[in-house]
Every structure is written in structure tokens, then in C-alpha cells.
Design a protein that fits this description.
The complex is a heterodimer of chains A (about 90) and B (about 425). With about 90 residues, chain A is an alpha/beta fold. Helix content of chain A is about 45%, strand content about 10%. In chain A, strands 1-2-3 form a three-stranded parallel beta sheet, covered by helices on one side. In chain A, strand 1, helix 2 and strand 2 form a beta-alpha-beta unit. The chains are: A alpha/beta (about 90), B alpha/beta (about 425).
């Protein structure tokens, strides 16, 4: 689907927990999410941290859209220590 | 382990006043079997109908297919650990089986809630078995099928609905297997799974091999203690790789109530049978590994692939045959498993159905890796011809008219999941050619 939309000249970023699949199929911009059940968040986090995590992932996708790529490319959201620690502690 | 697989072959089914096996004909007292199923308080209606190879019959709404078998020597109970059955180890001693017979469980899930009806473990509604014609190429079309049309009582949760079906099905299968107790088998196949035998017969020079069955778990969707989906000794949850003796699988240690397979497909698995028969002759078959898939984090998938390779290596295997049950994200784990084994120096063959190649525009595998060098195809499961009209439909629960008509052909795997040739035993597979 991403490839078909891009054929029409609209850039697409695929948000997924498993980047290997869209990368192998040839999607141009692939953003790594969290997990299959919750791609843009983590229910173990407090609502505030969860929102921040989701924001980081979506921001990464928006940056990916503005990045020129010549081949299937993986984008990884930057890690934030507070979020990592909270997820591990729960 | 020493194991004897005693076969009582059945050449025909007949309606009878008494359930018995006489001269290869299985006489079925339908009323007796229906009464057995109705003993379960959660079953409100039960109807037994018979279908044999070549009959102009279509079986729809099928949920599982089970071979009637009974342990007559050695510990345990066939189909261990499911629906309250004892979970003690099986795979030793002697098991009587009705050869060429299956109990086909049919039930209509439309009474379940929308959420439960669309659970991943439920078989898609378009799946059916034609007993004749061009669609009759599934292994189930070649069996004498005792079909159980079951209606669980209203108001059951999805978990209880499946449990009721499973209990009733196994009760009927147990009863049918009971007909073997008085007679002599037509043949007894003996399996000795001990590694010593390979060393004796082959002078210790036979290559160690394993079979690896990737079987999805639906824990991420149904929870850790669900009865839904494929289980090992009743356990459906995600877990690290299991090592089993192939004879445990002959005794039904894997129960396959789910999307793409059947319990029958594991007790009669051609990879298991072939490798067990070659043990001590052509290879040293070190065991069957069940790799649970459907982990939902990339790092979990990576970890389990590493654990698999470690186990295979620790067993001293030089080669592995790996099969997989469903596609999608599970195929990532399939490829990671092959890659991890190859990187550990284990020659690994992937036996798999192909994706629909979309008329040559799409690759046959969802993903691959450079390490995946040996792949045997079992076809696409597609059926280009239409499925002709049939005279009788089993399992329709009142919706039979449309099923009786001609059904459209199916192009590739993602049609109606008419047939997944998972293990190479269909007529698209090598074994039949």
C-alpha cells in the first residue's frame, strides 16, 4: 500500500513493530514502533510518559517523511532515559 | 522410546445399529455417538453425518479433524493435556489407530460475539473440504470422515464454546477408537527413537537431524491460559522451544484447534513419519522441536531464533527440516530460525507453502535472508478451477443452499484459506508425485 501511494507522488512512512517486513517488501521509509499490539505506545508507562513515547515515534515518522531516501530506510525513534527506565521498572 | 503404531484400516463407513469394526467396515451407530456428545452439558445439539472419499459432499464450518486412537500399552492418554485430559507423557508403548478415519468437528460460530468470532485462532469461514471433484485434493478428502455437527448451548464465552466442542469431539473419537480393542491390527509399525539404535545400525556414522515445527501461539491475543489455538500437552502459551520425541506427536501431544491446521495433520505428519522411518537407516533423527511463534517484539523473535539454534546444536544435529504453520509476522520467526541454524553450522531446509505470487509480481516468500539457501515448496494452496456444485453439504447449520452451489476458484494463499499444504502431503506437494 505504501508503495502504491508513493507512486502517486505522496511520501509515506510505515510505522511498524517489525521493520524487517516492509523493508524487505521495499517500502521506502520504515519507522520502528514498540510492539505488534501497541505500535505507538506502551501500556506499562504512565499516561504522561506514554504520550511522550508516542510523540517521539510520530515525530520520527514526520521527520522521515521529510527525508530524501534512495532505498528502503529504517528510522529509529530516539530513546529517552526516563521512558526506558519507567518501562523496565514496571 | 519404544513405540508401536497399530493400524486398523477402514475401507468404508456404514450406518449401523452398533458401533463396530467388521471386515474393514466401520459401522457407526449415529444415535449412540450423538448421545455421547450430548452428555456434555454445554452441548445442546449434536448430529453425526458420514462422508467418504468420492462422495459428492462438501464439509463446511469445520473446526478440527481428529484421528480416533487409543493407548493400549504404555503411559498416558492420547491427546494429552487438553480439555481436562491427563497431561502425562505419551509416546511409548502401543497406540491403536483407526487408519483412514477422522472425526471432523463442525460448528457455526455465528452465535459468538463479534470479537470472539474474529479471534485470530478461528478458522476463516470460507474454509471447506470437498470429498470429490477438483477440490478433493486435501488429505482430508481422502479420509472416511465421521462428521460431528455440534451446537454448544447459548451464552457460552468463546473459551467455553471451544472447550465444549473439544470435549465432545474427543469423547466421540475415543468411542470410535474403542472398536479396535477386540480385534487384531492389520499392521504394527515399530519405532525405536533411541539414539543408540542409529549408532548400532549405522556404525555411528549417520548424520544427526531434527525436525522443527514452527507453531503459532495466540497468547498475545487470548491470554496465557486460553484453550484457543495450537497447544502442546494442552499449553497454548508462548514459550521457549520444546523438544519432543516424534512418537509423542503421533500420540497427539500437539492439539491443533486453530486457523490453518488440524490435529490430524500432526498425528499423520509426513515429515515426522518419514524422518522416524529413516531413523537408524538414513539418519539419526534426534527429535522434533516445536518452536512457538507470534512473539510480538523484534528482540523476542531474535532471542527465540537464537535459543532454537542453541538447542539444535546442543543435540548434535548437523541438519534440520523446518516447517511453519501460518504466514504474516510469523514468517519473520521462520526465516530468523533458518538463519540462526545456518549460522550455527546446521544445514537447514525450509519446507513451506508459497505466498500468492500475484501473477509473478510478488516474491514467493514474504521475507528471506541470504542464509536461506534450501527451500522446498509445497505449492500455493490455490485452486484455479471452480469447485463444482455438490449434492450434500455437511456442517451448514441451515445455510446449506449457497454452499451446495458451485464455488469460485481460489487464487493463491489469501483467497479463502481453502487449503494450506503446510507439510507437503497434498497433491501439490512432492510426496504425491
Amino acid at each position: 500500500m505504501a508503495k502504491e501511494i508513493e507512486k502517486e507522488g505522496i511520501p509515506v512512512a510505515v510505522l511498524t513493530a517489525l521493520p524487517v517486513i516492509p523493508l524487505s517488501v521495499g517500502a521506502s521509509r520504515v519507522v520502528r514502533g514498540v510492539r505488534v499490539e501497541h505500535v505507538c505506545g506502551d501500556p506499562r508507562l504512565t499516561p504522561d510518559l506514554d504520550r511522550r513515547l508516542g510523540r517521539r515515534i510520530v515525530d520520527t515518522a514526520l521527520e522521515a517523511l521529510q527525508t530524501e531516501v534512495s532505498q528502503p530506510t529504517r528510522f529509529v525513534p530516539p530513546e529517552e532515559p526516563a521512558i526506558q527506565e519507567a518501562a523496565v521498572a514496571v | 522410546m519404544q513405540y508401536e503404531r497399530a493400524t486398523y484400516p477402514v475401507s468404508a463407513l456404514a450406518l449401523g445399529v452398533r458401533t463396530e469394526l467388521r471386515d474393514g467396515v466401520l459401522h457407526v451407530d449415529c444415535e449412540e455417538l450423538e448421545a455421547l456428545a450430548l452428555e456434555d452439558q454445554d452441548i445442546s445439539s449434536a448430529s453425526v453425518r458420514l462422508a467418504s472419499p468420492g462422495d459428492p459432499v462438501r464439509i463446511v464450518n469445520w473446526r478440527d479433524i481428529v484421528e480416533p486412537a487409543v493407548k493400549v500399552d504404555g503411559p498416558g492418554t492420547v491427546y494429552p493435556g487438553v480439555f481436562g485430559r491427563p497431561a502425562g507423557q505419551v509416546g511409548a508403548g502401543r497406540t491403536n489407530r483407526l487408519g483412514g478415519v477422522a472425526v471432523v468437528q463442525c460448528a457455526d460460530p455465528s452465535g459468538l460475539s463479534h470479537e470472539e468470532r474474529t479471534w485470530p485462532p478461528l478458522r476463516p469461514p470460507g474454509s471447506f473440504i470437498d470429498m470429490s471433484g477438483p477440490g478433493g485434493q486435501t488429505p482430508y478428502s481422502g479420509l472416511h470422515n465421521v462428521c460431528l455437527e455440534l451446537e454448544p448451548r447459548d451464552g457460552l464465552s468463546g473459551e467455553d464454546w471451544h472447550s465444549a466442542l473439544g470435549r465432545a469431539t474427543l469423547k466421540v473419537a475415543d468411542r470410535l477408537a474403542g472398536v479396535t480393542l477386540d480385534g487384531e491390527p492389520a499392521g504394527v509399525e515399530r519405532f525405536d527413537t533411541s539414539p543408540a539404535r542409529a549408532a548400532q545400525d549405522g556404525g555411528g556414522t549417520l548424520s544427526g537431524v531434527v525436525s522443527i515445527f514452527n507453531l503459532a501461539s495466540d497468547e498475545w491475543f487470548c491470554g496465557a491460559r486460553s484453550v484457543l489455538g495450537t497447544s502442546i500437552y494442552g499449553q497454548t502459551r508462548l514459550s521457549a522451544p520444546w523438544l519432543l520425541s516424534p512418537t509423542e506427536l503421533f500420540d497427539g501431544a500437539v492439539y491443533h484447534s486453530g486457523h490453518s491446521g488440524s490435529t490430524w495433520s500432526m498425528t499423520n505428519n509426513p515429515v515426522l513419519l518419514k524422518m522416524s522411518r529413516e531413523h537408524g537407516v538414513d539418519c539419526n533423527y534426534l527429535g522434533a522441536i516445536i518452536q512457538r511463534t507470534n512473539w510480538t517484539l523484534q528482540s523476542e523473535k531474535d532471542l527465540m531464533a537464537d535459543r532454537l539454534a542453541h538447542l539444535v546444536k546442543s543435540l548434535g544435529a548437523e541438519g534440520a527440516v523446518l516447517t511453519t504453520d501460518i504466514r504474516g509476522q510469523r514468517f519473520v520467526e521462520t526465516i530468523l530460525g533458518v538463519r540462526a541454524c545456518e549460522r550455527a553450522g546446521i544445514s537447514t531446509v525450509l519446507l513451506t507453502a508459497e505466498e500468492d505470487n500475484e501473477d509473478g509480481t510478488a516474491p514467493p516468500l514474504l521475507i528471506s535472508a541470504p542464509e536461506v539457501v534450501s527451500v522446498v515448496s509445497t505449492g500455493t494452496g490455490g485452486q484455479e478451477e471452480t469447485f463444482p456444485a455438490v449434492e450434500k453439504v455437511i456442517g451448514a447449520f441451515g445455510g446449506g443452499d449457497s454452499w451446495r452451489e458451485e464455488q469460485p476458484g481460489i487464487h493463491g494463499q489469501y483467497g479463502q484459506s481453502y487449503y494450506n499444504d503446510l507439510y507437503g502431503f497434498g497433491k501439490q506437494g512432492r510426496i504425491d508425485y
